[in-house]
Design a protein that fits this description.
The protein has 6 helices and no strands. It is mainly alpha-helical and 103 residues long. The protein has one domain. The radius of gyration is 14 Å and the shape is globular.
Length: 103
C-alpha cells in the first residue's frame, strides 16, 4: 500500500498545488477525496490550456506535479473507497462527481 509516500507527498505539496487548507487536505471521506480530485482535474485542465496557448504563466513543473498528484489521489481514492470509486467510474461524463452525490 502507498500510504506513507502518499501521506508525505500530500503533506508537502497538495495544499500549495491546488490552494486548499490543511483540514481539507486531511479529509479522507468520499466527499473530501472527490473534492480534491475535482480540484486537481480543474487545475490540470487550466494548466494544459495555458500550455496550449503558450501563455507566459505556463509552468511545466506545475503541470507534471498536477499529473502526479492526480494519479496518486486516484489510487488513494480507490483504496479507501472502492464502492464510491466504482460508482464514479460508472459515471463516465463526470468522474468522481458521483462520490459527492453519494456521500
Amino acid at each position: 500500500m502507498h500510504t506513507q509516500p502518499l501521506t508525505a507527498y500530500r503533506a508537502a505539496n497538495l495544499c500549495s498545488l491546488i490552494g486548499i487548507s490543511a483540514s481539507e487536505r486531511d479529509d479522507y471521506s468520499p466527499r473530501g477525496k472527490a473534492l480534491i480530485l475535482n480540484l486537481l482535474r480543474a487545475n490540470l485542465k487550466s494548466e494544459r490550456a495555458r500550455g496550449k496557448r503558450k501563455h507566459w504563466s505556463y509552468n511545466l513543473n506545475r503541470h507534471l506535479a498536477l499529473i502526479d498528484a492526480l494519479k496518486l489521489e486516484r489510487i488513494a481514492f480507490q483504496q479507501l473507497h472502492p464502492l464510491a470509486a466504482l460508482r464514479a467510474e460508472a459515471e463516465n461524463s463526470r468522474p468522481f462527481i458521483a462520490a459527492l452525490q453519494a456521500a
